[in-house]
């Protein structure tokens, strides 16, 4: 199985040294865990993500261990550090993330989350931290066939369930949409000729075609207003929202986010 094969759903990976599982104390606090030796209480910040979205979040073997990495993870680490908390990352299906957030099983969602009107009603959304274009991915033999958006009309299109790409596909005339929980599953559908095209976030698409022979990005460009990506926080938790926005403002002023994007993109494209 190649490294972009189907990932286990519900995998939980910890970033840093974690001292056990915690639950949310209330709407305005992160989970806490006690130190058995000192009795001290350490805050734990639990991040929900769907780790098949390179270079945002993806699996990579680091020092012999399967690890979730990416520039969203780098941002989450900075948020946790500014709060004096330990970061735990939960890998979940994309379409379950907001339910996990609303139920309090995760404190924040960082996973290429577009600030749609529907999401604004359901959760708190941070300031925008990154914007990127969308891409049409096809089999290499079909690159010229689907070189324009007119040519994409009426095709079988693969998208991630609950994503902005799914909304884009709904606007394409005659589209026959296949919605799946993982981008890796969409890619497999494309490779096996079950779909004709796939709409994938630009940097993510570039990473997949770099690592998988036989797939390319066409010249077709979906016409869509890019609202960028935000971090999801449980509705009413304005305390955490303010802390997240403060960290994002700092990272932007320091130029760190662009650095994280470049480093994560290079890591995603590497074969080691």
Automatic annotation (TrEMBL):
Primary localisation category: other
SUPFAM superfamilies per UniProt: Periplasmic binding protein-like II
InterPro entries: SBP_3_CS, Solute-binding_3/MltF_N
Domain spans labelled Solute-binding protein family 3/N-terminal: 44-264
Pfam family, one: SBP_bac_3
SMART domains: PBPb
Protein name per Swiss-Prot or TrEMBL: Amino acid ABC transporter
Species the sequence originates in: Paenibacillus odorifer
UniProt GO cellular component terms: cell envelope
Keyword vocabulary terms for this entry: Signal
Protein family (similarity comment): Belongs to the bacterial solute-binding protein 3 family.
Subcellular location: Cell envelope
Top-level taxon: Bacteria
């Amino acid at each position: 199985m190649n490294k972009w094969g189907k990932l286990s759903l519900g995998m939980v990976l910890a970033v840093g040294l974690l001292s056990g599982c915690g639950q949310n104390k209330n709407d305005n606090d992160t989970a806490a865990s006690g130190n058995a030796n000192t009795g001290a209480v350490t805050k734990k910040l639990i991040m929900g993500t769907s780790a098949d979205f390179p270079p945002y979040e993806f699996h990579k073997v680091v020092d012999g261990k399967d690890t979730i990495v990416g520039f969203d993870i780098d941002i989450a680490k900075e948020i946790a550090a500014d709060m004096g908390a330990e970061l735990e990352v939960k890998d979940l299906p994309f379409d379950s993330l907001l339910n996990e957030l609303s139920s309090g099983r995760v404190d924040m969602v960082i996973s290429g989350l577009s600030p749609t009107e529907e999401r604004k009603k359901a959760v708190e959304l941070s300031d925008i931290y990154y914007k990127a274009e969308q891409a049409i991915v096809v089999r290499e033999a079909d690159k010229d066939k689907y070189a324009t958006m007119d040519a994409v009309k009426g095709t079988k299109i693969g998208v991630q369930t609950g994503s902005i790409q799914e909304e884009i596909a709904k606007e394409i005339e005659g589209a026959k949409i296949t919605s799946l929980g993982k981008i890796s599953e969409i890619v497999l559908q494309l490779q096996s000729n079950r779909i004709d095209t796939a709409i994938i976030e630009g940097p993510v698409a570039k990473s997949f075609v770099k690592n998988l022979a036989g797939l390319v990005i066409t010249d077709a460009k979906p016409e869509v207003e890019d609202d960028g990506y935000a971090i999801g926080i449980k509705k009413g938790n304005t305390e955490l929202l303010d802390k997240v926005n403060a960290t994002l403002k700092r990272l932007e002023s320091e130029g760190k986010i662009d650095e994280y994007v470049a480093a994560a993109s290079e890591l995603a494209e590497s074969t080691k």
